Amino acid sequence: MAIVKRKPRNSSLRAQQFICSKDLTKKAPEKSLTAPLPKTGGRNAYGRITVRHRGGGAKRLYRLVDFKRVNKDVEGTVRAFEYDPNRNVSIALIVYKSGAKSYMLRPDNLRIGDTIMASAKAEAKVGNSLPLKSIPVGFFVHNVELYPGQGGKFARSAGTSVQLVAREDERAILKMPSGEVRTIGVENWATVGTLSNADYRNISLGKAGRTRHRGWRPSVRGMAMNPVDHPHGGGEGRSKSGAHPVTPWGKCCKGARTRKRKNSAILKRRKK
Questions:
Q1: What confidence score (pLDDT) does residue 263 get?
Q2: Phi and psi dihedrals of 211, rounded to 5?
Q3: How far apart are CA 130 and CA 132, in angstroms?
Q4: How far is CA 2 from the centre of its chain?
Q5: Quick check: 261 and 246 in contact, CB under 8 A?
Q6: Cβ atoms within 10 A of the Cβ of 146, count?
Q7: CB–CB of 194/172 below 8 Å?
Q8: Fewer Cβ close by (within 10 Å): the C or N end of the chain?
């Protein structure tokens, strides 16, 4: 996928960039693999806003992506690549010999017509899912489970992967995309390969309207508020007040560490 720039016919198109989607072979999603996606407006089950600046946005259907790879020991064929509005990586439609269909995250170098399999005895090639104990050391994997049978939790966004650095007894040592080094059980499953759409980080939305289409509403800076509304508010002129940036409720943000418990599974943190 390549980044495409718009012709500067007006000021909003001048900075716009988007990803060329010529390699996506299917426009409409598979009906049996979709579900309604109601809007929450950032509210939880009690009706309280827990995520600010959410609302509106284009309507979406949720694609039922198979993070658990439930069709074990059955060969599947890649039939199509599709756009998924709910994530930054495209998805692949898989049709299995048993007749079942499912979506999976699309890794790089996967082609239409390729056969894939989720099996403990499968070959360690792109698109195949195996336990970490069956994957050679040094391979890059994605959609990695944290606990066996839970489904993939690590490395699920565009262009990301986790490297299997070593194995010690019943633990596998992984190097995460952030640089963190941690251990998990060798019985956890992962999919071989690096996820596609790595150019996603180079997209430039170009105008506020494209942000609104994604369901993001405008946000007001704390410095522009009154002291009663935000800790950064008030002061004569543009006052920084000399304090560390905080949320409206006084919690540290923008880089301050908030983790209190130590995790013995993390061997090396992403920050020293």
A1: 86
A2: -70, -40
A3: 6
A4: 19
A5: no
A6: 14
A7: no
A8: C
CA distances from 210 to 57, 75, 85, 88 (A): 9, 40, 13, 15
Mean pLDDT of all residues in 63-83 = 96
Q: Which two tokens stand for residue 236?
A: 């004569």
Count the neighbouring beta carbons within 10 Å of the beta carbon of residue 74: 14
- Cβ neighbour number for residue 266 with a 10 Å cutoff: 14
Q: Which domains does the chain have, with CATH numbers?
A: 3-201 (2.40.50.140), 227-272 (4.10.950.10)
Q: Could you report the per-residue pLDDT of 203-258, keeping only the tens digit for each? A: 999 999 999 999 999 999 999 999 999 999 988 888 876 778 899 998 888 888 77
pLDDT(60) > 90 = yes
Mean pLDDT along residues 160-165: 96
Contact 221, 65 (CB under 8 A): no
Identity of residue 8: P
Burial class (CB in 10 A: 0-12, 13-18, 19+), 203: middle
pTM of the predicted structure, to 2 decimals = 0.90
Q: What CA–CA distance (Å, rounded) separates 96 from 64?
A: 16
pLDDT value of position 272: 59
The total number of residues shown for the chain amounts to 272
